[in-house]
Specification:
about 300 residues, 12 helices
Length: about 300
């Protein structure tokens, strides 16, 4: 009887003891506040320079590095739009981004399908080789591609007509862009129901019909997200472009860098703001399509 009463008391006390244990203590609150503070400081450290650049692109001052607010103006956006060299560089960047994105999505889709569907010898090594441009530092990849072009004589001479003078840069951008597209598309393929493919084959569909009518529509969100990601990476790239561009080929990031070397002007701030906005919009659209594809 005494043992039974003791067991009852232990059972009655255990929930209360568990509730007391589950309550966050002062150290838990301090740890939470500390993590919030670290996150806030990291966010300010990363994004404050971008916000300052955007704000001072509207500053009515002759020097872009002037931190004194002189008044609101949009004249420097007009000047940037009237700068022929800047517009030519922007046109080169857009051409490179569009062409490299097209080839990156095609190669990325084929690579993703191969890695997702087939088993073959040395497959882990092939996966690592595909992911290599993602993990290798950009400066190392830029030097390697420049040495490769020099060794095999793939040199674009001055005076080559447009857009053939952009060939080396396009090849370099495809090299580092298509692995990103392949990773995004392969993630989308992981959600594919293989029973749909088997059912289509049982109904007499060929491999091409299965790919066109079933697999490709399922891949569509991944294809769009991979294309936008590859386009953004190509449009923003500076390091690899700097090593592979010719003497008469200038892209938008390289042109902005050459302008900054002499002096920081509000015109550079305006051009950089436009590039930042384009990048943010494309990244947001890519993330939206990726989320939409995962939710289906």
């Amino acid at each position: 009887m005494a043992e039974t009463s003791l067991s009852r008391q232990a059972r009655a006390a255990s929930p209360a003891r568990k509730r007391r244990t589950d309550r966050p203590g002062p150290f838990d609150y301090a740890r939470k506040r500390w993590l919030q503070l670290v996150f806030l400081l990291a966010t300010i450290f990363l994004y404050a320079p971008i916000v300052v650049l955007i704000i001072f692109s509207f500053n009515d001052s002759r020097r872009g590095g002037n931190v004194i607010w002189r008044g609101f103006t949009t004249d420097y956006y007009v000047r940037a739009a009237q700068n022929s060299e800047l517009l030519e560089a922007f046109g080169n960047s857009m051409t490179i981004a569009v062409i490299s994105t097209l080839f990156s999505v095609i190669l990325g889709a084929l690579t993703a399908v191969v890695l997702w569907r087939f088993r073959f010898p040395l497959k882990p090594g092939f996966e690592g080789l595909v992911a290599l441009p993602i993990v290798v530092p950009e400066i190392c990849l830029g030097v390697a591609i420049a040495v490769f072009f020099s060794y095999f004589g793939l040199y674009i001479p001055p005076g080559t007509p447009w857009p053939f003078n952009l060939t080396n840069i396009i090849i370099a951008h495809i090299t580092f862009s298509f692995p990103f597209a392949a990773m995004v598309i392969r993630t989308r393929l992981q959600t594919f129901n293989r029973e749909m493919e088997e059912a289509a084959k049982d109904l007499g569909a060929s491999e091409f019909q299965v790919f066109r009518d079933i697999l490709l529509p399922h891949m569509k969100p991944g294809l769009i997200a991979g294309a936008l990601l590859a386009f953004t990476l190509s449009l923003d790239d500076f390091v690899i472009t700097f090593f592979t561009s010719g003497p008469d080929t200038v892209t938008f990031p390289v042109k902005v860098y050459s302008m900054v070397r002499f002096s920081v002007t509000p015109e550079i701030n305006a051009a950089s703001t436009v590039l930042i906005l384009i990048t943010l919009i494309l990244t947001a659209v890519a993330m939206r399509f990726q989320t939409f594809g995962d939710s289906r």
